[in-house]
Design brief:
By secondary structure, this protein is α/β, with parallel strands linked by helices. Among the domains are: 171 residues, Rossmann fold (3-Layer(aba) Sandwich); 190 residues, 3-Layer(aba) Sandwich (Dimethylsulfoxide Reductase, domain 2), CATH 3.40.228.10; 149 residues, Barwin-like endoglucanases (Beta Barrel). The chain has 22 helices and 27 strands. α5 links the parallel β6 and β7. Bound molecules: iron/sulfur cluster. The site of iron/sulfur cluster (SF4) has 13 residues, from α2 and α8.
Amino acid sequence: MGKEISRRTFLKVAAGAATASGLIPQVRRIALEPFVRPPEEELPGRATWFASTCRQCPAGCGIIVRVINGRARKIEGNPNHPLNHGKLCARGQAGLQVLYNPDRLHNAVRQSGGRGSRIFSPIPWSEALDELTAALQSLRDPQALAVLAGQPSDHLYTILASFLEVVGAPPAVIFDLHTALDGRAECASLSSRWFGEHQLPIYDLAHAQVVFSFGANLLETWMSPVAQSVAYGQMRQSRLGGRGVFVQFEPRLSATGASADEWIPVPPGTEGIIALALGRIIVEENLGRAGKHSDHAHLYRNVSVADAAQACGLPVEELRRLAHLFAETDRPLAIPGGQLTGHTNSKQAMDAVMALNVIMRRLGRHGGVFTPQPVPAERFASPAPTSNLTEILDLVERMRSGDIEIFLIHGANPIYELPAWVGFKEALEEVPLVISFSPFVDETAVQADLILPDHTYLEGWGYQVVSPGADRPIISGQQPVTQPLHDTRSTADILLSLASRLGGAVARALPWEDEAGFLEESSAQLHDNSISTYDARTPAGFWSLWRQHGGWWSKRAIKREPEAVGMPKGAMAVPAAAFQGDKGTYPFHLMPYSSLTLSDGRGANQPWLQEAPDPMTTARWNTWIEINPESARSLAIKDNDMVRVTSAYGSLQAAVVVYPGIRPDTVAIPTGQGHSDYGRFATTRGANVMDLLTPSPAEQGNKFAFCATRVRIEKVGQVKPLARLEDLDGEGRESIR
Ligand code: SF4
């Protein structure tokens, strides 16, 4: 056995070797030094906790990360953060596996064998930046530069938006599947229509007495599930008005439905029709303690409760019971979102649900609906928006027709996340220069010429204006908790570096040396603000407190009352949802749903999340299809049978989970698996449900109608045992390999 090498000696040698080979990571505020001279806050063997922000989904929960000897060891919720109050979900806990993932890119690379070859050659950062600068300088038209980003940190979005504006390029398209399945764009449009504000409304779940949720999977993935779980707990333990009542309307029983008092398994696409019927009964019978409803009678004048009952398969008496349950309390609350937004009638359905809050006078009331108070500083006034499908299709069309010369992609994986019918991959082939900033080689990065890997969120700076917020304006701050593990570089720093190289107006518009400088200057806009939760005599002291707290928030709750400025003047109507595929050939509604663990697929390269069982089926490590026992019987299908699922657009194979918590006319498949690229834990595992989705019917326009596809199911004659929790050491384990 050779001579043993101590950890300290190893660190010294490693640092020396890095210096000799010119591979020193690009650091800004933290010097790379061996632990013979540890950073001031580091004591060998003693833990240091850094406050930052979870970026595993767009919610923006505050985290604290335990760091020992420069290594991040554990992530917990930040107990002082007013959004998640110290709580964290499984994805938040698994963040260390993003940082230490063995499939991360270690440096900037060129795909030397051509796009899709998966043959990568390291290139120096200076060469990558020279190439990008030259390409930008030789653009024939700045409109030929296009950017797609998936819910970027707001500091990156602000820098990116300024960069694109000053070079004359179109604004970035902001898209990722997680937010699309949330229906964020739809929810923001709802707020625009009704309240004249594009920010997401805040539903005061904690203080409501009766909550009707129409499709919003509040406790798993929708919007801010950790904050909503905390609020749900408060509602259920309410000391004042007794235990709150919760009713979930959805075709498939989610963990949220399982936590509700009542799960109403409605036919897909009828949620809005039910909401209209409830409104009609409330208005007609003058239910509730809020007074007469004559102001709102016009909204429901064309609604037939009997027709609605027939459409949703619920007896009129049942609708009447639900209307009384909702209205005969002081603090009812109706929440639209999630799967409801995936139907062709979602706009009208969401209006019908919001109208329930309006007729019960729940706007601006305790336990009702609020609009967020903007952060009182200009720098934080325009958080990243969410693009709709029309904007995405427009981008694809511009790529396809050769209008785009340079395409930059950050934080999204559209080749995997968008339905195949969008044709993103084919359109990308028409773009001369494609640059990805992904830390991993995913399906889109593998079609890029250069990959310039960003830091992971535990190594980089940032901030996020939390939306939907809690009861106050919040900026969740992100800071490096460890030095960059590899020779990666912040995308914001790349943009600032490009601006400096381009010079002139671009350099003047983006004068910061690095993103940390931008953040420090941004934080100064809130120094001396009267509502800050902390104060400091100097901006530098304020910046220090910002990092210590993990961001900024108001010291007191500020709940703004929205005004229903856009309430419909005439009668409301919710048309029947349209579906692609005729019922004879494709008898089942397909319901894709966001995986609690893998989200839209971004969690698939983290083995903790692959191993974590789905809360309703306990399945993991694979794709499954949930089928009602009655339907399974009629098709002679059992658990673990492999079936072919076919839509009018595509097909896939998946193992069956016979699931009583789903309607007989509906089947459900979680998102997240079926990667062809994305590292060793994700690839060649399961199937991608997005491959089945059809475009919404032509007359519905460009809607991301992810619930509008019908499918048929056929046995393929194989059995593939799923790895389920109850089979911990037995049958099914081999399927994870
Ligand atoms: S809800 Fe989102 S932001 Fe919060 S801990 Fe989970 S993954 Fe992270």
